[in-house]
Amino acid sequence: MKYFSLNHNAPDVSFQEAVVRGLAPDKGLYFPKEINKLPDSFFNDIESLDNVSIAYEAIKQFVGDEIPETDLKAILTDVLNFDFPVVEIDDNIASLELYHGPTMAFKDVGARFMARCLGYFNKQNNTKQDVTVLVATSGDTGGAVASGFLGVDGVEVVILYPSGKVSDIQERQLTTLGQNITAFEVEGVFDDCQDMVKRAFLDEDFKGKRSLTSANSINIARWLPQMFYYFFAYKVLKHKNEKLVFSVPSGNYGNICAGMMAQKLGLPIEHFITGTNANAVVPEYLETGNYTTKSSVQTISNAMDVGAPSNFIRIEELHHHSFEKLKANLSGYSYSDSETLDAINHLKEKYNYVADPHGAIGYMALKDYLNKKIAQGVFLETAHPIKFLPVMPKAIADEMSIPPQIEAILHLEKKRILISNYEQLKQQLLN
Ligand SMILES: *Cc1c(COP(=O)(O)O)cnc(C)c1O
């Protein structure tokens, strides 16, 4: 499979090159040149397939012959070694829990898949030069990337996080693993971390010394495997024979865009719903037709505090840049922090279900949509509520117990390098 840059000013590349580069030289996002529908027989027989077989069928055209079937299946078996439960909480409302992986956020699947692909290519090529994955995080991305890449040969991971702006659990997930993972605590906010990463990618002084790549959802190997979730949910809910809609709490729009890719492959999804916090660029666009990016504002669903969603361009490409087509396939709603807390309390009181702030937004958006349309709705629960303990309603937080994945890291020592400017980062990386 070949990939082209959505800025249309760079050469087409292979899967491997797209994964290693992250972003095209013209700063465009990579996008597959072809998307072929899966055969009807796949959807007819999906109940008889296990998760690895489903994932393999979904992703194989995007990898092509660059990773042979047995190796790709081995990678997928390793990546998907936890559950993706569909929890039905009301007649037409189900939660798709994507937080049963090692760092308890949905980003585990993409990060683990990307890590194993890079590891595979390194082994094949016997590359002399290690790849350095450089990533800025406001919380969840860093943990998933650190865990996903831990111990992968030939790959070093450097994570930048804003001092005092991530929760204690998230900080431990970034700083306690060691081995090939290095964490930098940046005196500043998330945008400062992001700026340092961008500067490093443009910095000529790294040429020939370190080969840098990104592990944000702009990387196709992190973005594409997220489509598996939608197939897994379909497999469970297919027998209901109802129109299926997905509500996705969104920040950079990688996850929902992967769902739209699943739809392009023929998965019968009737409609998508995006739920956001106060960072409502996309719901506002759907309402007004004006796409206006903004600086992000801080909320209690902080993994979605994004003012300029990086994957939205891929969503537009999937809808042939037609506003009308997009509007027919996507609805959007945004909610305040107090509405989010109300929804968390409501889910607990009415259904005895504990949602995190992101999942709660997905739930509200789904409810608002189902007020107008009849369908089977699924909202994506993107992180375990324990990761957002400090902002959860106190009565619910007090009742929550710490899952074993989290317990295991609580006693480990945090190791990080404190920096306050780009030159310090650069010096460390070039040493
Ligand atoms: C990253 C993240 C999101 C947003 O996902 P996008 O793919 O960026 O839209 C939502 N919820 C949680 C918990 C996340 O970590």
Structure characterization notes:
This protein has 431 residues and is α/β, with parallel strands linked by helices. The chain has a domain at 83-105 and 223-401: Rossmann fold. It contains 19 helices and 14 strands. It has helices at 15-21, 40-44, 51-63, 69-79, 107-125, 140-149, 168-175, 190-202, 220-223, 228-237, 254-264, 281-288, 312-318, 323-329, 337-351, 357-370, 394-399, 404-410, 422-430; strands at residues 2-5, 13-14, 30-32, 86-90, 93-97, 131-136, 155-162, 181-186, 211-214, 244-249, 271-276, 330-334, 376-381, 417-419. The strands form three sheets. A six-stranded mixed sheet has the order 4-5-13-10-11-12, sandwiched between helices. Strands 9-6-7-8-14 form a five-stranded parallel sheet, sandwiched between helices. A three-stranded antiparallel sheet has the order 2-1-3. A hairpin with a 2-residue loop joins strand 4 (86-90) and strand 5 (93-97). Helix 3 packs across helix 4 and helix 4 (69-79) runs antiparallel to helix 5. The longest helix is centred in the first third of the chain and has 19 residues, at 107-125. The two termini are 37 Å apart. Pyridoxal-5'-phosphate binds at residues 105, 107, 140, 217, 249-255, 303-304, 358, 382-383.
